[in-house]
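User: Let's play a game. I give you a shape written as tokens, and you guess the letters that built it. Ready? Here's round one.
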């Protein structure tokens, strides 16, 4: 379940006690790398549940222990999850647990610590990516620069239906993506207060990549 925001129907903020509880554990600076990594995947799975709510259904005839019946099944629409390296990798397992047949593309970026601008260094996608629905995943939507570049790269490859899934978003990042890509739905576990002078989300999670991979 998602709650309404001032940003309109394209921004979906999770409104679920399990997500709120798990995010609180992640925010705690004393949470271990093991627990942090596991919870990233768990929340990714829960947000995927909402982000895939509009997947089309068809029916197929099956035989239950009691009778034959026409039952709903996914219509077979092609789907891909695209993590922004490296922190986005932490969310992939949760998405794949919900949609095991999804393909996985990768976009690698690093952030200039002075300008806060992202720089692309790697992009590898399934050959038929233009025919797939896309979920770009990254733990944080801060300034929006990395997400903007990732979305733009997918559009260059002909992708039409793109969603962005994050654990925590800052208002500045949400507003930036809305202004640049009004056709993209944003799914977030929480909407935080603001960015600090270093471009980090407050209260935030700290550096999600370092906390996932134990490099802090």
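Assistant: Ready! My guess for every position:
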């Amino acid at each position: 379940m998602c709650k309404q925001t001032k940003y309109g129907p394209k921004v979906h903020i999770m409104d679920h006690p399990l997500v709120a509880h798990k995010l609180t554990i992640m925010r705690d600076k004393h949470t271990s790398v093991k627990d942090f990594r596991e919870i990233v995947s768990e929340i990714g799975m829960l947000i995927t549940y909402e982000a895939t709510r509009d997947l089309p259904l068809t029916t197929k005839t099956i035989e239950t222990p009691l009778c034959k019946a026409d039952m709903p099944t996914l219509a077979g629409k092609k789907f891909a999850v695209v993590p922004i390296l490296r922190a986005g990798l932490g969310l992939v397992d949760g998405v794949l647990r919900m949609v095991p047949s999804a393909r996985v593309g990768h976009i690698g970026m690093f952030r200039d610590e002075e300008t806060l601008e992202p720089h692309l260094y790697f992009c590898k996608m399934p050959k038929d990516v233009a025919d797939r629905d896309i979920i770009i995943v990254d733990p944080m939507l801060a300034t929006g620069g990395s997400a903007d570049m990732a979305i733009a790269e997918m559009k260059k490859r002909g992708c039409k239906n793109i969603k962005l899934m994050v654990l925590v978003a800052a208002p500045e990042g949400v507003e930036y993506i809305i202004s640049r890509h009004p056709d993209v739905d944003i799914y977030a576990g929480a909407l935080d207060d603001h960015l600090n002078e270093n471009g980090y989300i407050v209260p935030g999670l700290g550096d999600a990549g370092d906390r996932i991979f134990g490099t802090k």
